[in-house]
Design a protein that fits this description.
The chain has helices spanning 16-28, 46-62, 73-81, 86-90; strands at 6-9, 13-14, 34-37, 43-44, 66-69. It starts with 5 loop residues before the first strand and ends in a 14-residue tail after the last helix. The protein contains 4 helices and 5 strands; from the N terminus they run ββαββαβαα. The strands form 2 sheets. A 3-stranded parallel sheet has the order 1-3-5. The protein has a two-stranded parallel sheet with strand order 2-4. It is 42% helix and 15% strand. It is globular and about 30 Å long. The protein is α/β, with parallel strands linked by helices and 104 residues long.
């Protein structure tokens, strides 16, 4: 991750109510290297996870870096409950089955 990367702190509760603000906040960061701080997450919901997966795909398509740092135990457990390997997800968003979109 570049030293110039921006840091975005996730909310403690990532439920349905948090999904739209999360999407808007992440879109505002688009085009920049981004570190997502997951240290305070207590609950991870499906809608917010979809937003995060979309962000990974978008950042990869844009050719910029996205990384998750300091994940809470609850965040890691949430990923596992949804069937996502936390190690791959947290290590640059390497998620099997995640469709990469090429932008020419």
């Amino acid at each position: 991750m570049l030293a110039s990367a921006k840091t975005y702190k996730l909310s403690d509760v990532l439920d349905l109510k948090a999904a739209l603000p999360l999407a808007e906040d992440l879109l505002a960061q688009r085009g920049s290297d981004l570190m997502i701080d997951a240290s305070k997450v207590e609950r991870l919901g499906a809608q917010s996870l979809q937003i995060l997966l979309s962000a990974i795909s978008t950042w990869h398509a844009d050719g910029v870096s996205i990384e998750f740092v300091d994940p809470s135990e609850s965040f890691v457990q949430g990923l596992t409950l949804f069937g996502i390997d936390p190690a791959g997800f947290l290590n640059g968003g390497n998620v099997p089955g995640l469709v990469e979109i090429s932008v020419d």
